[in-house]
Amino acid sequence: MVNPGEILENYDRLSELKAFDESKEGVKGLVDSGVAKVPRIFIQPPDEFEKTSGTCNSQFSIPVIDLGGINNDPVLRKEIVKRVREASEIWGFFQVVNHGIPVNVLEEMLDGVRRFNEQDLQVKKGFYTREYTKPVVFNCNFDLFSAPAANWRDTLYCLMAPHPPMPVELPAVCRDVLVEYSKQIQRLGFALFRLLSEALGLNPDHLNDMDCGEGLLVLSHYYPPCPEPELTMGTTKHADNDFLTVLLQDEIGGLQVLHENQWFDVPPVPGALVVNIGDLLQLITNDKFRSVEHRVLAKSEGPRVSVACFFSTSLLPSTKLYCPIKELLSDDDPPKYRATTIRDYVANFNAKGLDGMSSLQHLRL
Description:
InterPro entries: DIOX_N (IPR026992), IPNS-like_FE2OG_OXY (IPR044861), IPNS-like_sf (IPR027443), Oxoglu/Fe-dep_dioxygenase_dom (IPR005123). GO terms for molecular function: dioxygenase activity; metal ion binding. It holds the Pfam family 2OG-FeII_Oxy. This protein is of the alpha+beta class. The chain contains 11 helices and 14 strands. The longest helix has 25 residues, at 175-199. It has one domain: Jelly Rolls (Sandwich). It starts with a helix and ends in a 13-residue tail after the last helix.
């Protein structure tokens, strides 16, 4: 096997990063050009590579929670709330089925991501930018110039709430489904925040009244097949910098969650959505719910497609402070974090990139 350390010696990394970024073609451009080896900018440093080469354990599995009939049967709802609480405390991850979003909408959303990435290159390049103030952003790796190694994926970012773009600003090939899917996801998000509030023993509207579901950022990821998947990652180990993430993934798989120092697959379940707790929810619940590290493996097959919907108002100039919810505190369980604005928290997260370190640590009391 190739030694990553040997490949990483003696080259002008910044120049290669700039040249790659200025091409505006992303990872898909590399694959389309027939690249047979992973460029050096994507190769994980030796120490990080060792950390991300663990194996999965199939002894346990991510909980799959059926939301069917949740609003019609109080006894069933109580049981579902219990399962949501256990999953949020133990795993920080769960999957939901019978969530109310039609399968054809899920499939069309994935198809829309494929269409965007596989359309005429000149049209796609028109969206390529690193100016995140724009309503629609396409690029390869938000942290391309700050992370230790680039990840093998391209991403389309669309801020869909509370101030969605004008339809004409969205890419034509996925415009309609982006609008429809975002509306459906936001409806589901409000329902999930009610369940999570109940799971915390709070009024069902508590988290929604805190505006946890106000902002919605839709990240559509495209992971082309990789010629040397053992040398790089689809997405490096990280925890999410939001309140909650709802993920749609295709059938290829590759998503893994770190649980008790072992990597576990989050297997694709037909019609399911993956839900995971974000850093900001861990902060306001004072560690009652866990934002856990996860990653995506690079794969030789593909493209793998996923859509991650982040509930956060990180792009809004809000001065609202978030800190542990007072109803969850006691003399035995005092606040573990100081207050922060969402914008400041995310700015710190983005500045350091996906370096495998939790951004919550700098707020711990």
